[in-house]
Specification:
single chain, 317 residues, mainly alpha, 63% helix
């Protein structure tokens, strides 16, 4: 019997926060993660082997598996059993990255693990993605740009890497307020134009707009309620939202492993823009697979924000 579909939220004990499942709708990934938690890494090995050079899917699966609390211990056991395994090496690397971000491993140990994984698989962008995730939080801007270039040299359309780069660029010059010429918008527009016509990177200008709002709201130059902010209704914003929604209507990628992340950013934008009918269409496609970002921006309960927006867009309030 196949495993049940992943729950996007789970209700814990009283007052516990809702949990968002990073696996989204990848049922095979959910099953492999559960096996890894029980120390059965053979299913993980088969999953990653089957993913091959589908780099966006490989990155998605590795990052989700690496966040399992027992991932590092079991990945190290796997690596001891199969020291030549590239998949074991990259999982060790990513698991060490997430442990380092939690303060449970040294950052330098994570860097060393990622570099070792990169040596075993020079064509694979996933070890470099691990370094980019680490330095997005701990490194200098030069580190982030260099690592993004390493990922892009191996796979120019890497979805996760572009999201990380936009989040970091959006944090430049937070004190200057609204600036339609800010570099994050230029970068997002350039990346969308460089990508193939059917690439979900077409959504990047919307992501840039949301990330810049996060930064400005945290700095106090935008309201904490995004709907109350003019950030979403200016001429440039309307053009960005329309172009992204039109792309989705024509090219909807229901095969991309991170498509629900794109859909959440686009639904959030349409809701904030006041386009309820368009937002409703997107909420139908999202189904239960909500993501914390951008509903948490700037410092909100993402589950409550998502549910409120969905109910209002669908006319159920």
């Amino acid at each position: 019997m196949p495993p049940p579909p992943p729950a996007a939220f789970s209700r814990g004990r009283k007052r516990a926060a809702h949990v968002f499942d990073a696996a989204l709708d990848d049922v095979e990934l959910v099953a492999a993660r559960a096996s890894l938690a029980r120390g059965r890494w053979a299913i993980v090995r088969a999953l990653l082997a089957a993913t091959r050079d589908d780099w966006d899917r490989r990155g998605h699966r590795v990052t989700v598996l690496a966040q399992e609390p027992s991932a590092l211990a079991w990945a190290r056991d796997w690596q001891l059993a199969e020291p030549e395994s590239r998949c074991a090496s990259v999982l060790v690397a990513h698991a060490t990255v997430y442990r380092a971000l939690q303060g449970k491993e040294r950052a330098e140990a994570a860097r060393e693990a990622c570099r070792a994984a990169a040596v075993t698989a020079p064509e694979d962008p996933t070890p470099w993605l691990g370094l980019l995730i680490l330095e997005r939080s701990l490194g200098t801007e030069e580190d982030v740009v260099r690592l993004f270039d390493e990922v892009r040299a191996r796979y120019p359309d890497h979805h996760h890497a572009h999201y990380l780069m936009i989040a970091r660029l959006a944090e430049r010059r937070a004190d200057l307020g609204q600036d339609p010429l800010h570099e994050v918008y230029d970068f997002a527009g350039w990346a969308a134009e460089q990508a193939p016509a059917d690439s979900p990177l077409a959504i990047l200008p919307v992501v840039a707009h949301a990330e810049r709002y996060r930064v400005l709201a945290a700095a106090g130059s935008e309201p904490a309620d995004p709907v109350a902010s003019g950030h979403w209704v200016g001429r440039r914003a309307r053009q960005v939202m329309k172009a992204a929604f039109d792309w989705w209507l024509e090219w909807e990628r229901d095969d991309h492993p991170r498509r629900h992340i794109d859909l959440n950013f686009l639904a959030h934008a349409k809701y904030c823009e006041g386009r309820s009918a368009e937002a409703a269409a997107l909420f139908h496609r999202i189904g239960p697979y909500a993501t914390p970002a951008p509903w948490s921006y700037p410092d909100r309960d993402p589950y409550r924000a998502f549910c409120t927006a969905r109910e209002q867009a669908l006319g159920t309030t």
